[in-house]
Design goal:
Rossmann fold; 2 domains; seven-stranded mixed beta sheet; 7 helices
């Protein structure tokens, strides 16, 4: 276990690199998700070594994640509600179709549970987080990151028009592109908030919060999560790291 995450990794250069990759999500998805998966592995390894660890990735969806985690020496289990998202996986990885609110895993059966950009797509993110804590062993790690609705990318492909309302943004997107957006407001995308995530994490009696920070920002911007209202816009993507008691 590591008491404090090393800070040299989260540089301005890393933030710029991720942002540039982020801009080509639609046109170069392999690049975007590959860099995101590698970054997720690094964020986990800041707190917990992955060699020999069993990792449950809740809302997996992208083949880059099992590749990155197995390359780091982990045994990987991807869980996703969408069967089409469960791709063929490398040898030390498996996939299970499941809801995040009802994970088909035994209590304390994994070392690390990860959820990257899932919580804005479920109606009860607190229930998913509670399930992740349930399946992690005592002393294990839960790593959650999600996009804040009020951030510049809160509406995903309908951004920045989501600031004028999710339904309006969806209508505008369809009128402009000739087809509805992939993420439908109120159906597969919901307004998540930084403050809600912080309250949920700090209110858990079964876990200790190791980190609450803006995921893609450099180290010196960590304090933005402590600024009410401002944090909803500037945090962009909230990273929560919890250690199971």
């Amino acid at each position: 276990m590591r008491a404090e995450p090393p800070r040299r990794y989260r540089t301005l250069g890393r933030s710029v690199r991720l942002f540039r990759s982020f801009l080509v999500e639609q046109t170069e998805p392999d690049r975007f998700y590959g860099e995101l998966a590698d970054d997720t592995v690094r964020l986990v390894e800041d707190h917990e070594p992955l060699g020999g660890a069993t990792v449950a990735d809740v809302g997996s969806g992208q083949p880059a994640f099992p590749r990155a985690f197995t390359a780091a020496g982990a045994r990987y289990v991807g869980l996703d509600l969408d069967r089409a998202a469960l791709h063929p996986l490398p040898g030390r990885a498996g996939a299970v179709q499941a809801r995040g609110e009802r994970l088909p895993l035994a209590d304390g059966s994994v070392d690390v549970a990860v959820s990257s950009n899932l919580m804005e797509h479920v109606t009860t993110p607190g229930e998913v987080g509670a399930e992740m804590l349930r399946v992690v062993r005592p002393g294990g790690l839960v790593v959650i990151s999600y996009t804040s609705w009020a951030s510049p990318w809160g509406g995903h492909e309908t951004s920045p028009w989501h600031w004028l309302g999710g339904d309006y943004a969806a209508r505008r997107y369809e009128a402009h592109h000739g087809h509805p957006p992939k993420n439908r407001y109120g159906v597969t995308m919901h307004p998540t908030r930084v403050g809600d995530g912080l309250r949920w994490a700090r209110g858990r009696s079964d876990a200790r919060v190791l980190e609450a920070s803006p995921r893609y920002h450099p180290d010196w911007a960590r304090g933005v999560v402590h600024l009410p209202l401002v944090r909803e816009v500037l945090t962009w993507n909230l990273l929560l790291v919890l250690r199971r008691r």
